Structures are given as structure tokens and as C-alpha cells.
Amino acid sequence: MVTEEEMKFIAYWEENRSRQKRMLYQLAFGLPIGLVFGLPVLVSLIFSDWYKNMEFISPSQVIVIMVAVLGIAVFFALFRMKHKWDMNEQFYKELKLKQQKNDPAA
User: Fold this and answer.
1) Count of domains forming the chain
2) What is the DSSP letter of 3?
3) Could you tell me if 95 and 9 are in contact, meaning their C-beta atoms sit under 8 angstroms apart?
4) If DSSP codes are grouped into helix, strand and coil, which group holds residue 99?
């Protein structure tokens, strides 16, 4: 038997699944978490004194580091949100199957 909470999830997911599948939505809602994951890499580079042994750091090296941190953040954001969408979709399919088994007329 499908509980009331599961029925609410089914209704929610039927309404929002296509919107949450879009890459722009996944990027917009996943990027803050991605930045939280990527910024410690940048902070550790700045405070680890890796640059003090070098005589000159070119601006292109700084740009490469910033692009790499941004790439890590975007990848983590998209990967996390895609995984979250897949988990919700799997749960939705399981609930629909459970609902069909309990109520074949529906």
C-alpha cells in the first residue's frame, strides 16, 4: 500500500520531473554546492605557499587555476544534480509499480 507521503512525492515528481531534468536547472541549483566543493581547492593552493618557490607567476597560470576550479565546481554540480534526479526518478518508478500492484484499476 502506498502511503500518503509517497503519494505526495508521486504528485510532486510528476509535476516537476521535466523541469528538474534540464541542464540549466541542474546547473543553477547545483552550482552553490559545486562552489563549496571547488573553493577549498583554491584556498588550499593560496595558503599552501606553493607559489613562494617560484620567481614569477604569470597571469595565464592564475587564469588556468581559476578555470580549473570553476571546471571542478561545474562538473560536481552537474554530476550531483544528475545523480539526484536519477535517484528521484528511480524512486518514482518504484512507487508507481507499487501503486499499480496494489490498485490494478488505477
Assistant:
1) 1
2) -
3) yes
4) helix
pLDDT digit string, tens, across residues 74-96: 999 999 999 999 999 999 999 99
* Angle at the Cα of 85 from the Cα atoms of 84 and 89, rounded to 5 degrees: 120
Read out DSSP for 8-74?
HHHHHHHHHHHHHHSHHHHHHHHHHHHHHHHHHHHHHHHHTTTTTT-S---HHHHHHHHHHHHHHHH
Low-confidence stretches of the chain (pLDDT beneath 50) = none
Which range of residues forms the domain containing residue 67?
A: 4-102
| 54: region left, alpha or beta (phi > 0 left; psi from -120 to 50 alpha) | beta
Grid coordinates in use for 4?
500518503
Residue that has been written with the C-alpha cell 512507487 in this structure: 95
Q: Please give the model's pTM, rounded to 2 decimal places.
A: 0.79
The secondary structure element, H or E, covering residue 91 is: helix 59-102
Alpha-carbon torsion (28, 29, 32, 34), positive or negative: negative
Rg (CA), the chain: 22
